[in-house]
Write a structure and sequence with these properties.
Distance between the termini: 61 Å
Shape: elongated
Largest sheet: none
Number of domains: 1
Number of strands: 0
Order of helices and strands: HHHHHHHHH
Number of helices: 9
Structural class: mainly alpha
């Protein structure tokens, strides 16, 4: 057989990187079983729509408190489905395989948090300007709220991952999770509202200091939360 027609050895198919495969799996599972993106946005919309009934139809008042309302609604909407971050994997045994894999558990936790934020946090960031219009927020306030949510919501997801890891083996852990993480989310909420309100024309405060502090909180959570969550998962398995 000539060299031209000799059978060529098929190149070995490389499997995707474990963390990349895990990220793709989390996205597929999240879209399939939870509908977390649509559920979070609908919950976000309900809280924003009910606000005028609670505080009155004064448009000036609504525009002044719009950043706080949007941030509180985003915080509560982020909690939806956060208890399932590790619990479903714990129930079907996938979590044990993840802990025995070659990939560090801290990176596994970080990948799961990234997928959760992409499915739940990012839709809230995209919907925030439209819901801000319902509250009469000025254009500058809409941009500041959107940017602050883009920077701050990852910290909410990462802090929530610590609570999800601590309650993964509890039967009613979903009820305990908000009690555990809400006090630690208070700094994110405070500086997120401050950075958002600084973009409103009625606020003379500069936006840079609270925005930079909010970014620092997200960076600290990016470094520390996966370590703390992985440690909690290891303690749970012992």
């Amino acid at each position: 057989m000539t060299k031209e027609f000799a059978p060529q050895a098929s190149p070995q198919r490389r499997s995707p990187a474990p963390l990349g495969a895990l990220f793709a799996r989390e996205l597929r599972v999240g879209r399939r079983i939870g509908g977390a993106a649509s559920l979070g946005v609908v919950f976000f919309l309900m809280l924003v729509a009910l606000t005028p009934f609670a505080v009155g139809p004064d448009l000036a008042l609504l525009s002044r408190i719009a950043p706080a309302i949007l941030w509180i609604a985003a915080l509560l909407a982020t909690l939806i489905g956060l208890d399932r971050l590790f619990q479903s994997d714990h129930e079907d045994g996938s979590l044990d395989l993840m802990m025995m894999s070659r990939a560090p558990l801290e990176l596994v936790t970080l990948v799961k948090c990234a997928a959760h934020w992409l499915l739940t946090g990012l839709p809230l960031v995209v919907a925030a300007p439209f819901f801000g219009l319902m509250l009469g927020a000025p254009p500058g306030g809409l941009w500041s709220v959107t940017l602050s949510l883009l920077v701050g919501t990852p910290a909410l997801t990462l802090i929530g991952a610590i609570g999800a890891a601590l309650t993964v083996s509890l039967r009613r852990g979903g009820l305990l999770l908000p009690v555990l993480i809400l006090p630690f989310c208070a700094p994110v909420l405070i500086f997120g509202v401050a950075a958002s309100a600084a973009g409103v024309e009625l606020s003379p405060a500069p936006a840079a200091p609270p925005f930079l502090i909010l970014g620092a909180i997200s960076l600290l959570a990016l470094v520390g939360a996966p370590v703390a969550a992985a440690s909690a998962l290891r303690q749970m398995s012992e």
